[in-house]
Amino acid sequence: MANAELLDEHVRVASHATTRRGLTGLLLIRIDDLIAIGDQLGPDAADEVRSVLARRLSSQLSVDDLAGELDDETFAVVVRDASGTDIRNLHGRIHEMLARPVRVSGFSLVCHVLFGAATASTEVQHAGLWRRARADLSGNTERSTSVGGTDRRWTAQTSIRAVGRLDDLHDDLDFALRNQNGGTPGDHGLAVHYQPIVELATRTTQGFEALIRWQHRSRGFIPAAEIIDLAERSDLIVPLGDWVLSRALVDAKALGAARSAPNYVSVNVSATQLLQPGFAERTRRRVAAAGLEPSRLVVEITESQIVQDDDHIWDDLADLRELGIQIAIDDYGTGYASLAYLRHPVIDMLKLDRTFLAGIEQPRGRTILQSVVSLTESLGIALVAEGVEDERTRSMLIDSGCTLGQGHLYAAAMELSAAMEWEPGHLRP
Fold first, then answer.
1. What is the pLDDT at residue 164?
2. Measuring CA to CA, how many Å separate 143 from each of 98, 137, 146?
3. pLDDT tens figures, 392-413
4. Are the beta carbons of 349 and 329 closer than 8 angstroms?
5. CA dihedral (53, 55, 60, 63) positive or negative
6. In whole angstroms, what is the distance from residue 371 CA to residue 368 CA?
7. Is 361 exposed, middle or buried (0-12, 13-18, 19+ CB in 10 A)?
8. How far separated are the first and last CA of the chain, in Å rounded?
9. What would the pLDDT profile of 327-344 be if each residue is shown by its tens digit?
10. pLDDT at 310
11. Catalytic site residues?
12. Per-residue pLDDT at 14
């Protein structure tokens, strides 16, 4: 980390060195809660969090960028000779990296991060770069304070209170997984529920997505996102993913027997799980043991995970595809490389993130959706819209050419017995 003087010198050099892209960018990044962490957990804990965040920040920079510390709570990044898009993309990557939890002193801490930004392309603008970036940071700080803390649900202070027994919850999940007897449902609250994937025009069921559920004995229902977050921050994501996959394959046999046409079961797989040596072969054996055709299993991996380890993940997905297993990209439209990876022939399905549907009532949003539909059709890739909540959305998706969807218009995720009896004509009120 550079100091303030070196950062300022970098700005001065940049003012005379811009070329074709022409912009110097200055990002100020204030890490709220570091003082609170020091007060509650001690100065060593605050220093450890600061060091982790500094390493994450530096990992996103190019060789021409420079990061430094202005004070104990504020980082700064100087980006030289960049485009506006370059600077915005860097801002997004930094925000994503700094928003991830930091595990320290037995706690999982998620700090509240505030940004200030300014750009310059002329000598006069460079002279006022620091002032404008600080003003932007100050304005963001005031806006954050004015909303009464509603955007700070997961600050370090609340995390310390809410996740004070994180280790106990980890141990409970570990115990539950170790007592599932290789995929047989036990009495420890873990379960797999199934949400239908429906052909929008005909309302016929095409498949089911397997989703983890946990009814904790003392804490009640634990949201799926919290389960996955807990598992990913520990050593449990692989055994959790393997249990869900094993359970889903057993249940897929029952779902197929209960329906006139066999449906596929779609299972989310983490990058960590996928990259385990021998994962493809173990999956093949599990599919065979369940008595399923490989094509009745769809392995889903999120778009953001593909970005993290591109080459290795694509190799492992290709191994699964060679076995006849279908491959789906989940949360499509939320990552950084949405178009670049569509050239890979292993992709059978894209699952359109629910946030993609927010703007389809507007002409621009509808045009974008139709472009995605046209692109996937030309590549022979199935497109599933997630988060279909009402008939109006369903109609607009059909009009745009999207054929498949899932969401509360049809059904929430349900237990296996309910999924076996469920008919797509029975819409939720």
1. 41
2. 20, 10, 5
3. 999 999 999 999 999 989 998 9
4. yes
5. positive
6. 5
7. exposed
8. 56
9. 999 988 765 546 777 888
10. 59
11. 386
12. 75
How many Cβ atoms from other residues are within 10 Å of residue 279's Cβ?
A: 20
Q: What string of DSSP letters covers 342-410?
A: GG-TT--EEEE-GGGGGGTTSHHHHHHHHHHHHHHHHHT-EEEEE---SHHHHHHHHHHT--EEESTTT
Q: What is the residue-averaged pLDDT of the chain?
A: 81
3-state secondary structure of 93: helix
- Contact (CB, 8 A) for 116 and 133: yes
C-beta of residue 286 within 8 angstroms of C-beta of residue 297: no
Global pTM value:
0.62
- Three-class SS state of 260: coil
The phi, psi pair for 401, rounded to 5°, reads 100, 0
Judged by DSSP in three states, 100 sits in coil
Are 270 and 300 spatial neighbours (Cβ–Cβ below 8 Å)?
no
In 3-state terms, what secondary structure has residue 74?
strand
Whether the CB-CB separation of 305 and 96 falls below 8 Å is answered with no
Distance CA 386, CA 406 (A): 5
CA distance 226 to 150: 19
Q: Is the dihedral of CA 231, 234, 236, 238 positive or negative?
A: positive
Instruction: Give the pLDDT confidence score for residue 247 in this predicted structure.
Output: 93
Q: Position 256: which residue type?
A: G
